[in-house]
Amino acid sequence: MSAQQTVRVDLGERGYDILIGNGLLNDAGTAISQRAPGTRCLVITDEQVAEDHLSPLLQSLGSSGINHSALILRPGETTKSWDSLREATEAILSARLERGDLVVALGGGVIGDLAGFAAAIARRGMRFVQIPTSLLAQVDSSVGGKTGINSPLGKNLIGAFHQPLLVLADVATLRTLPARELRAGYAEIVKYGLIDDHDFFEWLERHGPDLLAGDDALRVEAIARSCAAKARVVAADERESGRRALLNLGHTFGHALEKLNGYKADTLVHGEGVAIGMVLAHQFSQFLGHCSGQDVNRVMAHLEAVGLPTQIGSMRGLSPGIDDLVDAMKQDKKVARGALTFILTHAIGKSFVARDVSEDGLRAFLATILAPA
């Protein structure tokens, strides 16, 4: 396994590199100046990430002659809001950044989504760089150009497709993450194996515990394989008109749980919602006759082995009813003309897009899941 890997997102003139390795934050200024010489930038981050990682980034930018300033926001999912978006865009304009300058997102998925959306709309579109500091952001949200904020009606309903200039995934930043956040990010890694790569899922069954325990080489390998999988899908379907929807395996259920939970991280974080959602997607597939119970049990066993939740009942203080879940899922971005769309599976590594899923069938399935033991 290489100590550093590069994955290319092939989108023609808008293509970009994902650099994955250990210590990349210290050389961020060099990597940015090579791709955007003479640029100025605003770094957008949050209070927790700033404490751990902002200083070396600013030092690297300064050493490379990049004029810079920083905006530090509150941490947490509630920052993906209209108020924070206004604060970010006004900071860009107040810094007198021009259209050819850069916004740099330093943080997890919340900061990456928010900063990317601010870059997409400030001056009708500015360049931006993703420096994801969470495992979840390194393997998912920093790649592919989805940016946005949440609405009270649902997660990520307001946003734009806006590709970054560069993604720097430094595995050293993962050392400051709580174990729970690492596990949440790992759920998104598992997703890539479940979508269309059975061999990768088997690799994770063997190496997942050591990866979470802190093996940097395994982390680089898993992040690179995840990013390469996403890059292939994004290059083929940038705006999610077809195959890219597969990347939402588990997310229709997971986003609904997050919404009903009020995006409160003490009860449920995104990756945990995805973990539960992926199990539900496999169980729903079994209910509809698409996949075997053996595959369902295998997915559940692996997620539980690394400490991820797999059942709605594991969420403290949240007991949603069928109507609550269905109503929340109807706000999902994959709903088309009112029809529900789910990512289902024939087997591990053989997922597919199921359009026009019957609401009656969904309700019948949820009745079996939510029935008292």
Care to describe what's here?
With 373 residues, this protein is an alpha/beta fold. It is 47% helix and 19% strand. Helix 3 crosses helix 4 and helix 5 runs parallel beside helix 8. The longest helix is centred in the middle third of the chain and has 21 residues. It is globular and about 60 Å long. The termini are far apart. The model has no long low-confidence stretch (mean pLDDT 93).
Summary keywords:
globular; alpha/beta; 373 residues; two-stranded antiparallel sheet; seven-stranded mixed beta sheet; single chain
Secondary structure: number of strands: 11
Strand content: 15-25%
* Major sheet summary line: 7 strands, mixed
Helical content, roughly? 40-55%
Q: Kindly state the mean pLDDT as a whole number?
A: 93
- What Rg, in angstroms, do the CA atoms define? 20 Å
Reading the helices and strands in chain order gives EEHEHEHEHEHEEEHHHHHHHEEH
Strand order of the largest sheet: 1-2-9-6-5-3-4
End-to-end CA span: 46 Å
Task: Categorize the overall geometry.
Answer: globular
Task: Give a summary of the structure in a few sentences.
The chain is α/β, with parallel strands linked by helices. It has 13 helices and eleven strands.
